[in-house]
Records
---
Amino acid sequence: MATGREIAQLCGVSVATVSRVFNQPETVNEDTRERVLRVAKELDYRPNESARALSTKQSTMIGLVWDTDHRRPGWRHPYLQDLLIGLKSALSAHGYHLLMLATSGDAREVGASLADPVGYVNMTRRHHLGGLVLIDSGSDAEAFESFAQSGFPCVALDVAVDGPRATYVTSDNSGGAREAVAHLLGLGHSRIATITGPPGNQPSDARLSGYRAALRDAGVEPRADYVVAGDFYRASGTAAVQRLLALDEPPTAVFASSDEMAVGALLAARAAGLRVPRDLALVGFDDIEIASVVDPALTTVAQDKPGFGVAAAKAIMAMITGGGREEPVVLPAKLVVRDSCGARQG
Amino acid sequence: MATGREIAQLCGVSVATVSRVFNQPETVNEDTRERVLRVAKELDYRPNESARALSTKQSTMIGLVWDTDHRRPGWRHPYLQDLLIGLKSALSAHGYHLLMLATSGDAREVGASLADPVGYVNMTRRHHLGGLVLIDSGSDAEAFESFAQSGFPCVALDVAVDGPRATYVTSDNSGGAREAVAHLLGLGHSRIATITGPPGNQPSDARLSGYRAALRDAGVEPRADYVVAGDFYRASGTAAVQRLLALDEPPTAVFASSDEMAVGALLAARAAGLRVPRDLALVGFDDIEIASVVDPALTTVAQDKPGFGVAAAKAIMAMITGGGREEPVVLPAKLVVRDSCGARQG
DNA sequence: AGGGTCTCTGTAACCGCTTACGGTGAAACG
DNA sequence: CGTTTCACCGTAAGCGGTTACAGAGACCCT
């Protein structure tokens, strides 16, 4: 690989000039600039990233924190691939790469662990990262918040953080849920239950409040026994529906905070001999791939999955170049009507 | 962030000694070593990765090439998340990070594009990457092969490459397919068709040969009109079944080279008024999430998804530290019998 | 003609770490 | 007691860039 020095020698200039050609082109004479550029192209010159980062204290990498929740092993992100597609392509447009940080460092290494909050800061500094994108796995909220305070650019997904150069992106969870439940109400249901995610989870809480808002809008009395907590997993959806069906006055419709739980609910309903949507209408959230394939196809609230990544990339790039805090981004969440809610029969 | 020099000053030693404490501990006196270690821990010292990489020409990063096929936009990996989980956790154990390379560089940049084969080499050098993990998207086979020849450690997924420090990992596609088709034969089917992936795609070709081998084993005459090419997408599975059903002597069972196509096949069968598995038995490949959720649940050949990542990580680490070529890894592919093949009724 | 500006470029320090090399003092040796 | 040997450590030269600073001409002005 050609180095700057080789270019310099071949062009009869100093390395400083070569560097200037790429970083402050306007300060170098047009003739020499072209000469340098031509030789650089011939030798296929690429500035060494480590050297550049060392001297500028800035790399072209954004860190990605994506841990699987240690309290819930097997946790999976509902649409990681789409998110990454959006993130990567938007970052690529700025010439940035995505560094997926190792979760637990080599024991030989000097405290390379990411476990503690300062781990994030250390990683960011060690690699001169432009900033961090934080994917919520449900158990790092405190660490995220503390990193956000550190002043490094950072954008969290689906969890609110605050800091001098921090922001977050999330869906309009409350709005989406509200629309979903309103849809159910519009279909004539009034006994509508909901299965929430883990209490404390921000998207889940927002969806719950959207559910409540929709009932309030319609003047339907909320019932505590119609709100049952799940954990976003399929099994919890099944369990929730079993509990709901055991009530004296079981619901005729269920809004689940995730498609996985909606699928679990579907299985439970089927096992109980109920037909969906005739005996029990069902709406989910996320619009994961499964939603459209299950039978009946799931009515659900779709999130802008690649949009998450794109928004995160934009926000972090803005904070890197701008220097200030960015406004949180809330992406639209749209109801996708399929078969599980019963609208198509009506 | 504390630097080596600060540690050195506080300990009254030179920076060289500090460095040695971490890189060749046995060459430094125990007392001073402990002193340095203690101070380092107090100051929470972490060697700067850029500086280290610059001087050793070795970073602790592995590059990940994961492009979406430009000829088939919207291409998605069937189980990227599981693969990444395995890859990341295995690399983390060695203290390595995963760098997702930007696909198309900033235009301002000096030829930062990854498009051409040398793009890979350049990226690897610029960042002092330990090597590359290549995810096949169906259209980079030549670029992969050429990178493999470059001598940098590299492991490709689902596509064979060869080079001084290159290897690949793949599933036992042929064996898995053979088992699947043998299962169908065992259920009494003899008119078994197959839907392949894109011709030329290695896993697809291997699955096709497994299909043929199973027929041969059973003494069943292969029929050219029972082999129809798809592209791994759902729609192609639908189209394929429509063609198959139009034959004079339609098959009674279909082996699809991907679950997506199997789902498409399922939809086509249903649309044609056929019941699966009674009228048409179906087996897929991959065991993606959808497989277990679709109705009837898909019998399919399961790949060891996280195992892919783990094997890739192991192979590349071995090549980095070892220096030689590693044997290709072929992961077991196991038939998972569910409902779409009819075995459960029998 | 002397001085001030402006443009362009080279010199050299620096980023933080690694490592070849050489030096020092103590222990071991003849 | 002189000489080797060895363990330990410091000096300094990189790695490949960036950038503050200063110097050299060219040009314009009074």
---
Amino acid sequence: MNNSRFSISVHILTLLASAKGEVLTSDYLAGSININPVLVRKELINLRKHNLINSREGKNGGAYLSKAAKDIRLSDVYEAVRQSPLLGQAKNTPNPKCPIGRQMDNHLTNLYDDAERAMVEQLRATTLSQFLNQFD
Amino acid sequence: MNNSRFSISVHILTLLASAKGEVLTSDYLAGSININPVLVRKELINLRKHNLINSREGKNGGAYLSKAAKDIRLSDVYEAVRQSPLLGQAKNTPNPKCPIGRQMDNHLTNLYDDAERAMVEQLRATTLSQFLNQFD
DNA sequence: CATAACTGTAACAATATATATTACAATTCA
DNA sequence: TGAATTGTAATATATATTGTTACAGTTATG
């Protein structure tokens, strides 16, 4: 990952889980997270695309979880916000004339896949419900 | 991590391991990686600080591994370039008035520590020597 | 001992990415 | 119909990454 989208999405989902089915507005969510409401709405759209939340337009609209918090694993959240490999591949293209350089990307990609998989497995161990239960 | 420094450092170390003790110049390394030599020199300084390489100034100068490739684990490289948690904490400070928001950073930090630890353990499984052996 | 080949390092420029803001159409409730 | 809200685009601002230039300091070697 590259930014703080995972943090923001976990924060949103934790708030929704604590709301027990009530809808929360993007303004309310943004107020707790302390970021711009438009960013929250963008994240909500992404989370909805990944079937983690639903939202309602119009007056009394807002967002709510689309399934029970115990059925959402933090790995699901990670996968929803993931856009590029965890360990940043360099932008440059290694020199194809160099026998090491020209194979580097392949081997690094394999290595990164394994490393990222290990991390996702760890995230899979925690459900949203468990995460929420840690809060007082 | 945030950038491609891990990739660059692994690339550098792989080239040095393949050179079997011969020194390589930052210009040569930069040519294989296809980045600016100054960036390579900066990475070399960091790798040296972490006791992975040594370097010699002046004519016929350059860099070389400071220990056997089999004694360098890819987790060592990760730790050398690591500067911030793997999963980016958001820049914003959650609203301290929100009972969820005010505890969020703590719980996220614990979560991230566990996730990152799992990934580092996976990297620890591969030595630089093993990584190099994958190349034709 | 002069010269060429290097590293070390600072200062700065360019580019890319992330985040924030503004604005407003579309939707829904009451 | 009016108020509250999402959805979304366009644009601005901030921050981070990467690249460049320049040059002082170091070392090997003829």
